[in-house]
Request: fold
Amino acid sequence: MKKLTVLLIAVLAIAGSAYADTSTTASAQGTYPSGTSFNGVPLGGLQIASGVITAADGAAEGHLAISLIGVSVLGAPPQVISVEASATGGTQTAPNVSTISGTCTIDLGTGTPPLTGVPFLATITTDANSQGTVALVLGATTLPAATIGDGSMTIADMGD
Amino acid sequence: MGRNHLRQGVWGLALATCFALLGHQTAFAWDNRPRVEASGFFKKPDFAVGPPSFADEVKFGVTGRCRKDSPSPTTCTSPPTEGRFEFFNTFTHFKIKGKITSLDFHPSVCDPFSPTAPQGKPAVTVKGTCDDGAACANFQLDLVDNDPGGPDWVCNMSIHAVDKAGRPEDDQTPMDPDQPLIRGKIHIRNYD
Reply:
């Protein structure tokens, strides 16, 4: 009977922890390594806002608004590529790493119609200063991680 | 069959029932609590920015819901409140982050003199405290899900805080007008 009780408690504990949801919030900006480009546009930096809840079973809900900032040429305003991403999946591979997936709309900022239904993957990694890195995969393009230098990002259990 | 076998059989059946009920649903599928997930950019009037916009740009991210043991699913104040917020003014570099301490889901009540500010749409009043060394005397805003019909809005913002670098922010309602999001989305779920 004692063994059965221990087993039941263990199962209930595992079941309980399996439904601990994770919050990934961000309002930050950062820089890309030299030579980074998307769709032929050289990129200097990124701005990101995130409000996403991820469940332990891999489901996710929420939104990311991302601006990819082009490199300014001769003082002209930089091209800004707007990414609006809806989260449908996510995992927390480490306490400070949140991976969010779904589909997004990409507006290249050139007046052409936005690209819709583009798969995306965002890997947000936080450091001790609530900054860190943001790595994006947009469709077939894998961008190097942007290093966050201002603002903040937090990955935490919803109850924390 | 002995008594112990019977007992184990009952336990096994109970566990199997639990797995059958919960095993094929996502955590969100059976969770019908009202909740908010929001992120985006909005303008904040600031004469110091100069022409042409005379406005700062704010980035924000919010998650929030009342805990399952909250007496009300639509209104809660710490401790039965879950979620986080981030707030970053990219012009002044003022930034705060912290825990959501109060949620109140309600129909939106935005600036009555603004012809485009949404009224009666799903909204939530969010309050929070800073946890990064900043001094938050007050952090409060209404997030409005304006689907369908237009951009989502941030209304009745009231922030009185000094961030950890000593930068102040003092937005007192109704000094700052309500603002539509220029980017992003406010999702208010399970509340009409």
Summary: Helices of chain B lie at 3-22. The interface with chain A takes residues 4, 7-8, 11, 15, 18, 22, 26-29, 35-41, 58-63, 65, 67, 82-88, 90, 93, 95, 97, 99, 132, 183-185, 187, 189 of chain B (CB under 8 Å). Strands of chain B lie at 35-45, 55-66, 75-77, 81-89, 95-107, 122-130, 135-144, 153-162, 168-171, 179-189.
